[in-house]
Amino acid sequence: MTPTITKDFYHFDTFPIDPCESILVNRYKSSKTGLVAIHADIQGPLVSGFLTLATKVTNNDGCPHILEHLVFLGSEKYPYKGTLDSLAPRAYAPGTNAWTDIDHTCYTITTAGSDGFLQLLPVYVDHILFPTLTDEGFYTEVHHIDPNGEDAGVMVVYCEMQARENSMNDIMQRALQQLVYPQESGYPFEAGGLMKNLRAVKIDTIRDYHRQFYTPDNLRIIITGKLDRVGLLSTLEQIDIAIMDRQRHLQCLKASTNPWIPAPLIPDLAYSQTETVYFPESSSTMGNITVTWLGPRWNAFLDVQAIHVLNAYLSESPISPLKKLFVEQSDPYCTELDFQIQERSRLSITAHFQNVPLHKADLLVPKLVSALEDIYATQAIDMDRMKVLIYKEKLKFLDDYETCPTFMVALPAITASLYGDVANDDFINALQQAKYFDILIHFTKQDWLVFLKQLYIDTAYTAIIGKPSDELSKHLMEQEAYRIEKQRTCLGEKGLHYLDARLKHATHINETQIPSKIMEGFPIPSVSSISSIHVVTANNPYYSVLEDNQVQAHINRDGHLKEIPYFIQYDHIPSAFVNISVYLNTGSIPSYLKPYGRMYMDTVFASPMRNIDYTEVVQKLDMDVISYDASLGYQGSFREYIVITIKVESTKYAAGINWLRHLMWSIQFTQERLIVAVNKTLHDIPQAKRNGKLLTDWTMRAIHTDIRKSTEASCSYLYQDTFLPRVLKELLKNPERIIQDMNEFRSILCRDENLRVHVTGDVLSLKRPKSIFRSWKKHALKHKHKPLPAVVRSRDAFGYYGLNPGNCTSIVILPSTESSFSIHSTRGPSDFDSIEIPSLLVLMEMLHAMEGIYSRLVRGLGLAYRCWLTNATEAGLISLCILRSTNITSAFEHIKHATHQLATGETEFDCFALEGAKSSVIFDMANCENTRQVAAGQSFMNKVLKQSTRQKLDLLKAIQQVTMPHIVQVLLTYILPLFDPKRSNHVIVTSQTKSQEVAQSFCLMGHPAKVIQLEDVYAKNIFQQDSFIDLA
């Protein structure tokens, strides 16, 4: 391939990545510095950048991870901590981020519009290639000892790895890497660093590492979104010139520093082996198991796609051979089974078995090996199902180009640029993988059997069995306590005082204020640079008629209103697929039936129909439907609705409507399928209960809602933990009663007045977009037609504490946590058109943005990993969330104090922060419509669920007109009450040892706090006056 030259950049041939050629990729390489840029032209309002460097480690020091953190502390040109995240909002970006993997480090940025992206890109590159790497930054951000003799605070590298090092997933992954990969490959190590190493690593080691890998020729700037080519090249040339100006870096431009070229050869595993590892956990009866095989080289693209297809055949659906054997059982071996592929120089393929009962852990791997051998020996490959699956997987691939194109480009581009040359055919083939499905469709049964045998039977495997250990938990706690006490003794009072002074000095240096001239020199671009996605809306005019348009005319011509007694909104977008969602209002379901909602959602796609076994139902469903789902609400809101969604090709629209009819009215609930669903949830709950954030959410929901009114609360794991054991007992002795309840639940749920339907896709291409729904009518005529009920909101299911926040503070004990988590809630706006919402959104950004007042306070003092505010208008609540806090009381008190200072004027808001916050809110608006499918979903949310009359341009104008007096007013009205005991509710999840101390501290602040056990929330109805269901 002969590139063309554009000034100082080579331009390689443009190529498409999708069969429709709607996404074109351009590649540029500097003739002077070797810098490479890759641009995928994707329609939408957002522009994303993935600034990637190939990095390699030979130990567990965590050098790439440390560098990832230190880069954000300033550069030679911008030597101030937080510059990037302070400038990001002025580019219509929420902030910057990064990740470290074993073979690369990637820095990310996403902006609304192209102007801000191009403006921020040179600043970002300056931070990456020319970071300050000061002694002070290293001391505060990597590892230090606090005045109590303990290691580090919350936001440093050390504490991040402290939270991970002894987790189940990390322990199992480290064991796997060490058994599978040779030392010289660079793969068996922990790129994040181990605590022992992090305590000893020095800044000079990090500087050497930066010199080795952070060079222009090793930097790949991968960009997705709409960008002007001239503007991009101009920016790249600006970056190139800045690099050339650093004369001391010219010498390192002579040779490539990519450590993965040539890609290392990974030898076959010599033999199969199984190793058991333990992770610290008490009172758990579940473990996890992984089984890993080595696959082909990274650029064997046909084989890679074949592996994806074979894994889907084996495990994806309820009728897949392995899922039927291990999951879809009344006494399952696990609750979830999936395959994951890691794309290194040579692929590794890992089967993950989650929530394995300990008494079955040692039986699972032999059973898996036997199952795979049996499939080969009996030639049990169903070619009809395989061909359907290949076609479906191709459609999913094409659908992903529409729904998540950014990562469809970025992730394969990263791998291909790590292990190959962006100028060669491997790079193009890596991004055109959809074409390989056209080859796989011609594979014979014998081809698949040979492939199965080569991949999983003739190849050795490494299995890791992860088991919980209470003894290990106690040992690690005792070992760490001994180490810290020894550390205190060795340092002594004089040593601790010295380290405290050193930390304060380093913190003072790091927190130097960013000069206003830097902010002033970074003007906020015009919103005109932000493109938008056009959605045309029509509806079946059940209670309202939209303005006339071509789509509405198309709908009106197709059948009479009286024939289709359902509300249907159609959102027209260019697409090869149709997404159909049915929103089912649960408001009219009686209290004693509401908890059956989870069982309904878990069985609706995996139950038999009249005279059709459930396996045949699933098989036929897979033939017609690309994807399907049943869940509560849309994007975390309106969760009193059960939403059934299917996606089909446009040509199968009629089949999709027919499937929804069968799913809502024809499925038959059976004892067998209900027991499988119940057992799966009961096995999932223990692991979910180890998540502190989830526990705060569940408990606050229990405080706010009347369980008798709320489907969301009654379907939560917290309530299901008390409900499902009784259901399971009843299913075993009297299944008819539960089946009768399920049928009654379904009968009420699927009444026509409870249905709201959303259709998105190329509506104009549908021949019968409305009249096809006539097939549903016979079900609607079984009862008298009723008007469409009002939209049900979370607030409609509130109990006393939800409607009247105040005087309720609960401390929940989580024995396995070392950190604390909290949610604090008060009343907020409940009208989506409230004139205060624009000001409130801007204020929240000013407070919780990466460089906002709350975040700098809490993160800077090491009090919590993160804190943020939420405005749930549907529930009429404002909430403050604090995540992974080392001292939850101090974090809350500091935030409270800062808020009072702002309210009284002792502390003033920054005018630059106001401008940046407005830009961040505008980004959030663009992000809500970042793809066609998401934009269509937002249309339904606004018009049908929120029933908002405010137009997008009106909201945009209102945000830009927010002033400082507006900010102060909404602070007084909505944020200050969060700290008033009489006007707020609080949930804190913490350890047993800290629970009483936290309760006492909140009591001293005026909050009537009480310590509770999680299982008592519903078992003893702590927040309810009486129970509402009795299965006895």
Textual characterization of the structure:
With 1032 residues, this protein is α+β, with helices and mostly antiparallel strands. Among the domains are: 273-405 and 425-468, Cytochrome Bc1 Complex, Chain A, domain 1; 536-781, Metalloenzyme, LuxS/M16 peptidase-like (Cytochrome Bc1 Complex, Chain A, domain 1, 2-Layer Sandwich); 808-1007, 2-Layer Sandwich (Cytochrome Bc1 Complex, Chain A, domain 1), CATH 3.30.830. Helix content is 44%, strand content 19%. The strands form 4 sheets. It has an 8-stranded mixed sheet with strand order 1-2-3-4-8-5-7-6, with helices on both faces. It has a 6-stranded mixed sheet with strand order 14-15-19-16-18-17, with helices on both faces. A 6-stranded mixed sheet has the order 22-23-21-24-20-25, sandwiched between helices. A hairpin with a 2-residue loop joins strand 17 (627-634) and strand 18 (637-649). Helix 24 packs antiparallel against helix 27 (717-733). The radius of gyration is 29 Å and the shape is globular. Mean pLDDT is 90; it is low at 1025-1032.
Please write out the topology:
Elements: E1 4-6, E2 9-16, E3 24-30, E4 36-41, E5 46-54, H1 63-70, H2 83-87, E6 96-100, E7 104-112, H3 114-129, H4 135-141, H5 157-165, H6 168-180, H7 195-198, H8 203-213, E8 219-224, H9 229-245, E9 273-280, E10 286-297, H10 301-315, H11 321-326, E11 336-342, E12 346-357, H12 361-377, H13 383-403, H14 405-419, H15 425-430, H16 437-440, H17 445-457, E13 461-469, H18 470-510, H19 516-520, E14 536-540, H20 550-556, E15 567-572, E16 577-585, H21 597-603, H22 614-624, E17 627-634, E18 637-649, H23 653-665, H24 671-688, H25 692-704, H26 711-715, H27 717-733, H28 735-749, E19 755-761, H29 777-780, H30 800-803, E20 808-813, E21 820-827, H31 837-848, H32 853-860, E22 864-872, E23 877-885, H33 888-904, H34 911-927, H35 932-945, H36 952-960, H37 964-975, E24 985-990, H38 992-1004, E25 1009-1012, H39 1016-1019
Parallel strand pairs: 4-8, 9-13, 15-19, 20-24, 20-25
Antiparallel strand pairs: 1-2, 2-3, 3-4, 5-7, 5-8, 6-7, 10-12, 10-13, 11-12, 14-15, 16-18, 16-19, 17-18, 21-23, 21-24, 22-23
